[in-house]
Amino acid sequence: MIKAYQTRCQERVDAALHRLLESPRPELKRLYDAMAYSLFNGGKRVRPLLAYAACEALAAPAEQANAAACAVELIHAYSLVHDDLPAMDDDDLRRGQPTTHIAFDEASAILAGDGLQSLAFSVLSEAQHNPLPAETRLAMLSSLAQAAGPGGMVGGQAIDLGSVGIALDQNALEVMHRHKTGALIEASVRLGALASGQATPEQLAALQRYAQAIGLAFQVQDDILDVESDTATLGKTQGKDEANHKPTYPALLGMSAAKAYALELRDQALAALNEFDAQAEPLRELARYIVDRRN
After folding, report:
1. Tell me: the pLDDT tens digits for 222-276?
2. Which of 59, 145, 225, 227 is the most exposed place for a label (fewest CB within 10 A)?
3. pLDDT (tens digit, 9 = 90+) per residue, 93-142?
4. 104 and 34 in contact (C-beta within 8 Å)?
């Protein structure tokens, strides 16, 4: 089921993203080419899937979450471009292809990331892209800004950079990853729910518990794969975290305990959806997928 659902959602969000990435002027072609390269390079679109699935779980058409799906993927793509830069993680490979600063140049990569980020907020704020009530658009903007900024993803990256070679305990490691990875995953679910126009406070709280659990499970599984997988499967340099002396769950807990923790988090996510009916099945399948994936 998840494969077919993933394909449908990918096609829907990619069509919308292609429309956004049409260069308005010839002299901006290189910039838009770099933005498109960063965005259409084989990503799994997990965050748009979560936005669509949350919207559908609340009995609304998936199309109502188009702007949300585009916005979270634009933010995710920008973060990867900047994370890969020499000043950050200094990666040459992303999803099996040269990273943006290798395929273009460092300045173009910085500008591409900047462009993707600002475009995300334009998509949410403008009625032509997000034809929801102004109050809903404002709530969505606020949620994304908090998740993407110093209180979320950017803050998590700062903690990550400051933690190289430092022995973190499990609580400190989770604080870092709830910011760096989890915040945008939580925002993806929340934006999809807000787009439905039907979410109660109780449903939003349950979906937040779900998203917090899968956000952490996603990172635990990433750490596991960085040890157990290979560069060809991952599409990025395998073993980079260990080589850079970054704190990871397998290093902290041991591989067996890290795998058990990923399953525990999956079960927490599924439990958070107990009050939802069959329309939330894609969210349940995504929780299982996140800990079963091999790349």
Report:
1. 999 988 866 555 555 555 655 566 788 998 999 999 999 999 999 999 999 999 9
2. 59
3. 898 899 999 999 999 999 999 999 999 999 999 999 999 999 999 999 99
4. yes
Topology of domain 2-292, CATH: Farnesyl Diphosphate Synthase (1.10.600)
User: To 10 degrees, the CA torsion angle through 195, 142, 123, 65?
Assistant: -20
How do the domains of the chain map onto residue ranges?
2-292
Q: Using alpha carbons, select from 252, 254, 222 the residue that is nearest to residue 239.
A: 222
Query: Bridge partners of 97?
Result: 94
Q: Which of 195, 70, 29 is nearest to 78 (CA)?
A: 70
216 contacts 228 by C-beta, under 8 angstroms? no
Cα Rg of the chain, angstroms: 18
Whether the Cβ atoms of residue 269 and residue 214 lie closer than 8 Å to each other: yes
The number of beta carbons lying within 10 Å of the beta carbon of residue 257 is: 12
Q: Are 141 and 125 in contact (CB under 8 A)?
A: yes
DSSP string covering 158-200, please?
A: HHHHHTTT----HHHHHHHHIIIIIHHHHHHHHHHHHHHT---
0.90 cut: is pTM over it? yes
210 contacts 273 by C-beta, under 8 angstroms:
yes
Beta bridge partners of 94: 97
Q: Which of 178, 187, 202 is nearest to 120 (CA)?
A: 187
Counting other chains too, the contacts that 85-90 makes at CB distance below 8 Å and 24 or more residues apart are 85/109, 85/110, 88/157, 88/161, 89/240, 89/244
| Distance from C-alpha of 202 to C-alpha of 43, rounded to nearest angstrom | 32
Q: Count CA atoms closer than 13 A to 40's CA, side-chain side.
A: 16
Residue type, 11: E
Structure tokens at 137: 């658009």
Q: Which amino acid is at 255?
A: M
